[in-house]
Write a structure and sequence with these properties.
With about 240 residues, the chain is of the alpha+beta class. The protein starts with 8 loop residues before the first strand and ends in a 5-residue tail after the last helix. Keywords: Coiled coil, Membrane, Transmembrane, Transmembrane helix.
Length: about 240
């Protein structure tokens, strides 16, 4: 194991509304009951503030400090509240990792397709069955404490994803600008080529017209000269 950090995670719970379905704590029943009562009241209050009219079914990750020692971490989804209590010095991402594992395991066991078996359960009905799983998830996070500390937080992951998306958008935008510039250069080159061809065509047509006029003038001069010679019967009249 990578090193145990005993008593950093001290309590965990799964509840449906105000009803605790399963809980676990390595401490005495009195301590467990105290954590349970406070976690149940706090999760109900927090669940109302965590929901918004625009997104009433969104998952909620929240933390609540009860004293100078413990922090209650909540994951609220649908009608269920997942709670883990930690010492203050623990990083939130470790507690939230534990909550995610608890939720995933719970939904896998009891909330599969056409397999919602929690509706008719009484309070603490899953203590024997799911309580050991809560213990396993807490111990997993304690056993892998150092490894989990090195993992990026949810906020870091979101920021990294945001930066990646912005970078991709920037690249696409730059590519579009380059493509537009290339297209403009091609169009400008085509316009200049068309202008040169038009100028050459105008010069060619002017030359043809000049040749025709010159031929016409020479023809007229020649005809006049012939007539003049015919009238004068020679060069001199």
């Amino acid at each position: 194991m990578e090193g145990r950090h005993e008593q950093l995670l001290v309590y965990s719970m799964v509840a449906r509304g105000e009803m605790v379905l399963a809980e676990y704590s390595p401490f005495s029943e009195d301590v467990c009951a105290a954590f349970s009562a406070l976690a149940t009241r706090a999760s109900i209050l927090i669940s109302y503030s965590a929901r918004t009219p625009h997104n009433p079914n969104a998952d909620a990750f929240l933390s609540f400090t009860s004293d100078n020692v413990h922090t209650f971490h909540f994951l609220i989804q649908d009608e269920f509240r997942f709670v883990v209590v930690s010492q203050h010095l623990i990083e939130r991402k470790i507690a939230f990792t534990c909550l995610q594992r608890m939720k995933s395991d719970f939904y896998k066991c009891y909330m599969g397709a056409n397999n919602n078996t929690t509706g008719s359960l009484a309070a603490h009905a899953l203590d024997t069955e799911f309580g050991p799983k809560l213990k396993d998830h807490m111990e997993y996070c304690l056993d892998h404490f150092q490894k989990l500390q090195k993992l990026p937080s949810v906020r870091d992951q979101v920021q990294e994803l945001k930066e990646s998306v912005l970078e991709n958008i920037k690249k696409v935008h730059e590519s579009q600008i380059k493509l537009e510039i290339d297209e403009m250069e091609v169009l400008q080159a085509q316009a200049e080529n068309f202008q040169r061809q038009g100028e050459m065509l105008r010069i060619e047509m002017w030359m043809k017209q000049a040749k025709i006029k010159l031929v016409a003038i020479l023809s007229c001069v020649l005809v006049a000269f012939i007539i003049w010679i015919g009238i004068c019967h020679g060069i001199k009249c």
